[in-house]
Amino acid sequence: MPHVLIVDDDPGTREALATIIAEDGLTTVTAGDLREARIQLVRQTPDVIFTDLKLPDGSGVELFEDLDPQSGVEVIVITGHATVESAVNALKMGATDYLVKPINMQRVKAILSRLPRAGDLKAEIGNLRGELRRMGRFGLMLGNSPAMQEVYDQISRVAPTAASVMLVGESGTGKEVAAQTVHQLSLRRKHAFLAVNCGAISPNLIESEMFGHERGSFTGADRQHKGYFERANGGTLFLDEITEMPVELQVKLLRVLETGMFMRVGTTREIETDVRLIAATNRDPEQAVLEGKLRLDLYHRLNVFPIGLPPLRERGKDVDLLAQAFLDELNERHSTKKHFPQAVKDMLMSYPWPGNVRELKNYVQRAHIMSGAESDSTATVPLQISLSKPAAGTAVTIPFGTSLAEADRQLILATLEQCGGVKTRAAEILGISLKTLYNRLVEYGNDASRLAEGEADDESRALGDANA
């Protein structure tokens, strides 16, 4: 039977917690300070510890020093409103969750309902690591490069806790998939996972979408609507592009994080919610704070456990692994047997993939469609990386003895032609600055002018390509 240690200097709090926990079928012991708590730890190692942060002889976080890191003991810290920041620090140290005084007993029950699954969760994480070694998969995520191994390690550590997570990475790096993996490895996995793109909702509707609204609360509100926080109760809410959320709404989001309470638009009745937040952005969050796009206090509350997702160009052979996985999925769906010839694999590995995993997936789908209806094992997938009009060929032949300057000229002009004259795109592929590219084109004179129609056209073409 699970055993719980309750550490609090207030007898009323100890008694209330002991009563509610006993109703859940767990055994309990209590302590009024650190000294008594350590005595109880020696007598019997608990499965769960509820501890106040402020005790007569020290801080509750000091108990972490008395616990074996491999013991799997779940620690829930208790704090007053004035010391919520201390609770966040405790989460960083390994606490599973925290409660704010006066303690909400419904929240205690919600925490207890998740705790018995913690052992199974750790076993599942261990199984995922075995799958990673065999197949390069970690839950919903794919790739076994050193950069991704570090991400998996961070997810393994934070997923079973209640800590908020901040995912930072370029567009297309798989932030939502990472968020789903955190959820599936968490104690909330049997509850809802809801994702919302903060930049895709009208500023006039985002508060209603987040918190819901009552019938008649504004023009067009012909029925009651439950928002994301209400529908995600008990589960995980993924806020993508958090820096695009209006600043005035960020204040209300911060209040939900601190109190677990919110109000639908059109009412003053508070509703309780128990939601874990995972936020994501493709910006530098600290720069977003400086620019006024993200409130500093909200940033600190969301950034309890930051995870950086690497761009695809830094993931080495994961490109080949991902491309093959996407192709296998299409072959299975369409009953085909297409494959990549080695030359195409080599070119995929040499391309920088500015659109990251999303761009690679789109390319594989496009290549699968363009390869025709063949379904035999010799069918090949053509390469068409350029996002603008394709050039006649995809390779530059440079004879032996060609000077480096001439080879440089041919490569730059061929790349510019392959990119339809879009200089920003060509510079990105070549790995040089736009200024360097302009300097080279000035040197090449008429040869370059036929490929590009001017600086102003570059930007319009690039925007057209991005929207294609």
UniProtKB/TrEMBL annotation:
<dbReference type="InterPro" id="IPR002197">
    <property type="entry name" value="HTH_Fis"/>
</dbReference>
<keyword id="KW-0238">DNA-binding</keyword>
<keyword id="KW-0547">Nucleotide-binding</keyword>
<dbReference type="InterPro" id="IPR058031">
    <property type="entry name" value="AAA_lid_NorR"/>
</dbReference>
<dbReference type="InterPro" id="IPR025944">
    <property type="entry name" value="Sigma_54_int_dom_CS"/>
</dbReference>
<keyword id="KW-0805">Transcription regulation</keyword>
<dbReference type="InterPro" id="IPR027417">
    <property type="entry name" value="P-loop_NTPase"/>
</dbReference>
<dbReference type="Pfam" id="PF00072">
    <property type="entry name" value="Response_reg"/>
</dbReference>
<dbReference type="Pfam" id="PF00158">
    <property type="entry name" value="Sigma54_activat"/>
</dbReference>
<protein>
    <submittedName>
        <fullName>Regulatory protein AtoC</fullName>
    </submittedName>
</protein>
<keyword id="KW-0067">ATP-binding</keyword>
<dbReference type="Pfam" id="PF02954">
    <property type="entry name" value="HTH_8"/>
</dbReference>
<dbReference type="InterPro" id="IPR011006">
    <property type="entry name" value="CheY-like_superfamily"/>
</dbReference>
<dbReference type="InterPro" id="IPR001789">
    <property type="entry name" value="Sig_transdc_resp-reg_receiver"/>
</dbReference>
<keyword id="KW-0597">Phosphoprotein</keyword>
<dbReference type="InterPro" id="IPR003593">
    <property type="entry name" value="AAA+_ATPase"/>
</dbReference>
<keyword id="KW-0804">Transcription</keyword>
<feature type="modified residue" description="4-aspartylphosphate">
    <location>
        <position position="52"/>
    </location>
</feature>
<feature type="domain" description="Response regulatory">
    <location>
        <begin position="3"/>
        <end position="116"/>
    </location>
</feature>
<feature type="domain" description="Sigma-54 factor interaction">
    <location>
        <begin position="141"/>
        <end position="369"/>
    </location>
</feature>
<dbReference type="InterPro" id="IPR002078">
    <property type="entry name" value="Sigma_54_int"/>
</dbReference>
<dbReference type="InterPro" id="IPR009057">
    <property type="entry name" value="Homeodomain-like_sf"/>
</dbReference>
<dbReference type="InterPro" id="IPR025943">
    <property type="entry name" value="Sigma_54_int_dom_ATP-bd_2"/>
</dbReference>
<dbReference type="Pfam" id="PF25601">
    <property type="entry name" value="AAA_lid_14"/>
</dbReference>
